[in-house]
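CORE FACILITY INTAKE
Project code: CF-77B
Contact: R.S. (postdoc)
Sample description: multi-component assembly, four entities in total
Requested service: structural model of the whole complex
Turnaround: standard
Below are the sequence entries exactly as provided by the requester. Do not edit them.
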Amino acid sequence: MVRPTIHDVARTARVSLATVDRVLNKRGGVAEKSVKKVLEAIEVTGYVRDLTAANLSRGREYRFTFLVPDSQTGFMGLMRTALETQRAALRDHRVKLRVVAVPAFDVAAQAAALASLSHRSTDGVAVVATEAPEVQAEMARLSSDGVPVVALVADLPRAKRDAYVGPDNVVAGRTAAAFMGRFVGARRGGILMIAGSLAARDHMERVMGFRMVMAERFPQLNLLPAVQGFDTPETVKALTLAALREGPLAGIYAVGAGRSGLIDALRDSFDRPVTIAHDLTTSARAALLSGELDLVIDQNPAAEVQAAISLMRDLTDQRPINPNSGSVPLSIFVRENV
Amino acid sequence: MVRPTIHDVARTARVSLATVDRVLNKRGGVAEKSVKKVLEAIEVTGYVRDLTAANLSRGREYRFTFLVPDSQTGFMGLMRTALETQRAALRDHRVKLRVVAVPAFDVAAQAAALASLSHRSTDGVAVVATEAPEVQAEMARLSSDGVPVVALVADLPRAKRDAYVGPDNVVAGRTAAAFMGRFVGARRGGILMIAGSLAARDHMERVMGFRMVMAERFPQLNLLPAVQGFDTPETVKALTLAALREGPLAGIYAVGAGRSGLIDALRDSFDRPVTIAHDLTTSARAALLSGELDLVIDQNPAAEVQAAISLMRDLTDQRPINPNSGSVPLSIFVRENV
DNA sequence: CAAAAATTGATTGACGTACCTCAAGATGTC
DNA sequence: GACATCTTGAGGTACGTCAATCAATTTTTG
């Protein structure tokens, strides 16, 4: 039993090859009953389109654009590495990647970068976007222009993007809290949350999730109000030191970046609080091994990139997409499994 | 700049298409200097073989056989589900999967199943194998017969298989210990390890890793000798109850299967020990949610299946393989992130 | 019923590689 | 120089789909 081809379909449907082709590729101009005959024939023969042949014949190329913040280090560095790795693998699959670095936290630059894109220059856009209205307006324009727009890492309101690829940040916060409660145990002192910015949706969601589980399962712990470190080491350090002056800390949840400031601040404290952070960067890995971090919650950037590409492909080909295919699982790392 | 083809290579090398083909597909009968010219031309043109076209032309089919224990439930159930899921996706990639169920723990049946395979009936074999000599002999025969043999889930001595796909079980044990120590905290009581069989390499490695970290980082905890539950609920239950009679338990590390017996045994204990288990089966998921399990270490069966297939493909095509491409990362689940 | 419109068939040429054959040229051996 | 052996060229067919054309047929419309 060999694989059936369009010829087999045509023969069993008693129509010509051309008609089968018209049905398969929705070229229109086919009578209802013929469509039906073809579909039935596909059913009985068990025909599946041979993707290798189809792609070869089409010679189609997908041009996808990734807009990511330009920071070389930290999480975005990992993401850029993942993109470069994918680039090689994707040559075989007729996908061309363009990675555009935009200054982090620069709304105007982000909007400008998006504005320069159109359906003529790209077949899909994945962007680590902020909630700024000018950025979202550009995303909406692209989307209505027929260019699929995927929100990466941080979600946006449903109306502004075609899909989201990234972790469920509420779950991430909840998970952090579960481990925090367990690790802190009977220790005394406050629990400090340092977010990057509470205007960033991903950080806010993490804080929310963290708060929920803390209230549900560890009400005896003293959860301090969340502070904003703006992902900069100096601010994070200052905030940590300030909190330590207020009283002893049992735990710290570093929701965003700027981790080196945190580690600096804790260097001299003789009874280090339980510290949980996000994203397994090189420095996070080192901090885990040296004991400066207790646990890291990672969103696999490589998996995110892959999911984004696969989703953009489905969207450009108008294939139905699985609503939660963009959700990437969280990985949890401690010293022993980095 | 379009993608260069073999024609371009032939033209820049000033040889015929046939010669390029001979070089590319190692058909032999080409003078040294011609080979050199072709390789140089490949270099300067930046030629990469178009896999879609190549596969289409070859019409090659990969027939891979998976030998897995026949238990419908638990981890092997997950693996069989993953295999079925892959089967559909693989139709597009000219890969045909054959899944053979062999009675668990039945050495003779396993050896017989392997014996029935040859290079004529399959292009690669992935097997969840035991260390029994008759099984390993069959694996060695297949391998020397030119059929790649991949050890799945549990590793084997290097000489007996072509690759290993599965978790690093020593790391798994170490990770379990790290969380166990943290979760137990100041609690008093023994730490019980229940393995399936200490003759199973994967279980033994986990126990080893667990012991190491316990000794290094939590020497104050009372680690009891590992017992063997043979993956059967009744035995596991009996062992747990016996341990409880000996004295209070602070933690239990369920290295293997038979978890339902464990949960049975603990149902009435009023101060439940910290319980860590392996593999996120349906029942493990439920137990996490209900609080009967504290943590689950999962080896993503779907990822394992994919890795195994990709490796077998590389092996059959004689491509060089990355020695640690078969190592699948561990996933850690608690109630909050299942 | 005739004209217009819709539908269908037949055919052809890509896409890039694999694989095969046959003849011709180059090189080496005695 | 005759012969065998090695190496190369030229050319064709196949893989399964896509895309397009043009003519032939059927159906619809007034």
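Facility notes:
- Chain B has 13 helices and twelve strands.
- Residues 15-19, 22, 29-31, 34, 53, 55-59 of chain B lie near DNA strand D (CB under 10 Å from a C1').
Invoice: internal transfer
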